């Protein structure tokens, strides 16, 4: 089937003489609703200025090639198209033949690529700023971790971001050490999760580089804590990444989204993995800071 709409209009009065089946499919009007009507009666031009420009070009050159315009469906939905049109003589009649191709999906794909490029640039800038932040570099664990979760929630447009660390005294317990609620601009309260209560989740973070639960309530990896965590907090989607220190898992970075289910993009998954790596670096910086302070303390004791 021809993917283009084809219409014939009487040049004298602008009324439709004929339309093909794809016209009806694309704009949701039957032939009976269209024949004998003018486009303005149907309101199919989304922007009248586009129509005026097309008419101007036709009057001057007699032909229009691949002019980008938007048409409006019967339902009100807007369709992006490339329009070509030409004046023709058929016997004693002057008509306008117009051909339009739906490029809506192509335009959506272009916008998605542009948004992806913008997001990747934003992510890179945020990560660079964090890597050179004085609190991060100096190993100030508390303030450095807080800056990471605030940055992560803002850059990814997530409702909440948090860092969880395995308890040194109880390696079966994961503790939320710092978290940020972007909507309320408040810190999250500390809480614990026990491995034995959520075996599928802990198996996932030990095995995979990230857990991308678009549907946190029903995803097998995260459904175990739906009733005690996700539902009460209004969390619909989760994106978590474990971080490691000297080959052992030390904790998890968690991004949380509320509202409609969110399909995590590839660049978002890479971003949370990189954030997890930054947490590892922060832990190393904190260890160096602590070791340096101990050396300075020992030096002062010897001097005394």
TrEMBL record:
Entry EC number(s): 2.7.13.3
Question: What InterPro entries has UniProt attached to this entry?
Answer: GAF, GAF-like_dom_sf, PAS, PAS-like_dom_sf, Sensor_kinase/Photoreceptor
Q: What is this protein called?
A: histidine kinase
Query: Where's the PAS domain?
Result: 13-37
Q: According to the UniProt record, what class of enzyme is this?
A: transferase
Pfam families in alphabetical order? GAF (PF01590), PAS_9 (PF13426)
Record has Cytoplasm as a keyword: no
């Amino acid at each position: 089937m021809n993917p283009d709409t084809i219409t014939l209009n009487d040049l004298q009065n602008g009324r439709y003489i004929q339309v093909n089946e794809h016209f009806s499919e694309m704009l949701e009007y039957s032939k009976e609703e269209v024949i004998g009507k003018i486009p303005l009666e149907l309101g199919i031009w989304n922007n009248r200025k586009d129509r005026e420009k097309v008419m101007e070009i036709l009057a001057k050159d007699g032909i229009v090639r691949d002019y980008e315009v938007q048409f409006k469906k019967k339902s009100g939905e807007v369709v992006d198209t490339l329009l070509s049109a030409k004046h023709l003589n058929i016997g004693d009649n002057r008509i306008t033949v117009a051909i339009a191709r739906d490029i809506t999906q192509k335009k959506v794909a272009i916008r998605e690529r542009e948004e992806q490029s913008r997001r990747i640039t934003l992510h890179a800038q945020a990560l660079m700023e964090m890597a050179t932040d004085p609190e991060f570099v100096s190993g100030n664990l508390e303030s450095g971790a807080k800056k990471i979760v605030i940055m992560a929630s803002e850059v990814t447009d997530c409702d909440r971001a948090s860092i969880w660390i395995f308890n040194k005294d109880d390696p079966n317990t994961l503790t939320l050490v710092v978290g940020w609620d972007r909507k309320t601009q408040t810190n999250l309260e500390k809480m614990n999760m026990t491995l034995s209560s959520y075996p599928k989740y802990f198996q996932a973070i030990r095995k995979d580089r990230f857990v991308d639960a678009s549907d946190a309530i029903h995803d097998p990896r995260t459904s175990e804590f739906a009733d005690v965590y996700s539902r009460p907090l209004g969390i619909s989607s989760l994106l978590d990444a474990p971080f490691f220190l000297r080959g052992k898992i030390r904790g998890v970075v968690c991004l949380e989204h509320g509202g409609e289910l969110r399909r995590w993009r590839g660049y978002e998954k890479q971003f949370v993995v990189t954030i997890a790596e930054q947490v590892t670096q922060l832990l190393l910086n904190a260890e160096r800071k602590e070791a340096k302070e101990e050396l300075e303390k020992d030096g002062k004791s010897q001097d005394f």
